[in-house]
Amino acid sequence: MANLVKDVTISDSHPNTLLKDKHVNYLKSYSDNKEDYEYCMTEYLRMSGIYWGLTALDLLNESNEESTEAMMEFILKCVNDEGGISPSTGHDPHILYTLSAVQIAALLKQESKLPVQKIVKYIQSLQQPDGSFAGDKWGEIDTRFSFCAVACLSLLGQLDAIDLKKALDFVMSCLNFDGGFGSRPGSESHAGLIYCCVGFLSVTGNLHLIDADLLGWWLCERQLPSGGLNGRPEKLPDVCYSWWVLASLSILGRLKWIDQDSLTRFILACQDTETGGFSDRPGDIPDPFHTLFGVAGLSLLGTKDLKEVDPTFCMPANVIQRLGAVSQKLPSP
Amino acid sequence: MHGRVKTRTTEEQRELQRIEKQKKVKLYLEGMNKAFEKRNKKELDDEALAICENLLVHNPDILTLWNFRKEILLEFKNSACTNPEIDLEKLVSKELYLTEVCLKVNPKSYCAWHQRCWTLDNIAPKPDWDRELLVCTKYLELDERNFHTWDYRKFVVGRAGVSAKSELEYTTSKINKNFSNYSSWHYRSQYLPLVHPDATGERPIDRDIHIKELTLVESAAFTDPNDQSGWFYQRWLLDLQQQLPLVLTQACISENFTWVAFNKPVCPNDTALSITGLGDGKWKTCNGETASHVWIKDTQDQSLISYEQSKLSLFVNGELKSDLELKLVTESNDQQKMIGFRKPSFINNLNSALVDFYSSLLESVISLLELEPDCKWPLLSFVTIARHLRFESSRAEIYEKLELLKKCDPTRKNYYDDLRSKFLIEDKLSELEDFTGVFDVSCMELTALYHTQYLSLFREVNLSKNKLGKIKRRCLGNLCNLQACEVLNISDNNLEVTKVPKLPNLVTLVDGKCLAGQKV
Questions:
Q1: Is the pLDDT of residue B316 over 90?
Q2: Which of B180, B187, B285, B411 is best to mutate for the A interface (most A CBs within 10 A)?
Q3: N vs C: which end of chain A shows fewer Cβ within 10 Å?
Q4: What ipTM was reported for this prediction?
């Protein structure tokens, strides 16, 4: 059974410099046409979409203050009776969109306008007896939600509102043979879930529980000859996985274990030269999700003209500093 | 949006697509409005189910619609006791079918998968778990890497009470069909310790099975030496030996300051841990984090320094885990302190059966490397196995192989450099008899600093003329363990900005900018 490396090829025809103005334009005009097909089809994740767009713009040094009031009005309309926040009006609340809303409010320096105690109560209500977190009242369990819970509480300065010990035990029960983490106990390691679990441990100051050399090795093995990173062995590279792997390596103090130049080249090649925005792989259709992770990845790689990003929260570092949301990072060996 | 290739289209095609999309948007908006209206009016009926279904088959990720369906299904279930016309079985099979249709549209839809689990757990009168297991097997034949399917399988296996042994056999059959499948190896790693635990409790799996498993993965990995899945699994099996117990490695009690060092980072707030022989006072980590290798505290009790010899004992959950002998030493300035250290151990000793097996494995890897001298995975395997065997004869060869790895896998050259630095520091520490004088690892091309917890007692540490400066904005956080260090030399490392942690005994920092002798 021949094992062909799944990868992409990057050529001179792909962009190799940051098309900053195009991205600003792409992000700013994304919501212009409310009847656009892509826009409508992503209504179910609108709150996260706004977080992706606003954070990317901020990292690109572009403020969006004129929309602050409308944005907060929208968020407050999405808060339900129990304190959970929905992706859009009419939709159900979920911890994913609750975190996105808190992140947006923090970006806009409007966190004091949030019904903080209600949100905290909602997050508390989602913790299960085994320490895990459900995404909403219907009970889907995932380590993504453990991360959302502590990230949200940390941004609100209320980390001690939940049973942290049990929450930690659950996350650690998802540790695998390869040093990585999956979504539930026994689930295969996956860069996205690793980011969530490493992020959880970073927020709660428990990174010493990780075998950073073992996990760091697994993570740097995600880099393919094209420079891009995949999310699991034998998979294609992708800009969003590049971020999750990169952010995890950065938290673990092992960013230099990947080839930063070739990753920068891969991310730049995923820009759309016509419309702006980043796609998952060179030549694909761009979207705000990959645009944020492309920009954030480049920021972590030290690309000039971008604001510094915090790898744990995927938000501008100055916002995290302003909030005093402390998170642990391991020193490089 | 993943894997959607941007295609060149003509004006005419674009116009057709635009009209098509407009139609879809109209249907979507109308459908959503209808669904929300029905929900607001609490009309939990077949029509509402149909409205949701029409939307979900096009976009399975609209969680709110699945939630609406859950409310409707619960309503039907409640009414079923009084209304014989409601056929719950039929409702369940329709719901399961819908999730299957949706999973064809998006096999990674979290909410479609969850809907399936939820329906079986909450609505199905008698879930057919055997059928569900077959669904998993079928799906895993279509895509053997979909982790959602593997997770669903784990859920079904739990509900159906399938034995761990039978699941382990399933992974054997999957691996026999295609060993280049990381998911199968992962799944196997979950069941192996359950089916074959070690009777002595010293390791995760039984020793004979360990050897059998290494043989299995050897044949898989050797079939295609470029395939990474098997090698990852092999490295795990090889390192299963490496679970070192927590030990107290070094300690110092001086007039007003005490510290202890462990082989692993531990948390002073962990109530399971206690150290006797040190009097009162609260331990703190030396790095300000939750856990650290070195704990510090202010010494109050002078009498601790008066004994000729004493002993510290580390207890975990009340059980004695490790002892450390302390000796009284008198410093040049007549100050007295108690210090203790033990030789560090980096790897557990292999028992004789494993030494034999690892040796034969090393021979096979060497033969493979004769055929494919530049192949990354056997090179790395050589390094791992030889490191475990610790044969003096292969020590130099390990470093040669690491150099080769840097050439044939340049993407990860910094990883191999750090691994080399780790090994060099381990080798250096293993040679030492005394851990209090001068520790000199200058001129070794070190790119990383490992095991600084074993340097807590050295008075002088020389790290100069290495390559520690390869990292931008490097903070030398690991140096916080150097509690006794008075002279620290980090010069000639190309360090951009040197941020050395505050060390209690540091008198002289040689950092290349300020020359030797300068006080800090």
A1: yes
A2: B411
A3: N
A4: 0.96
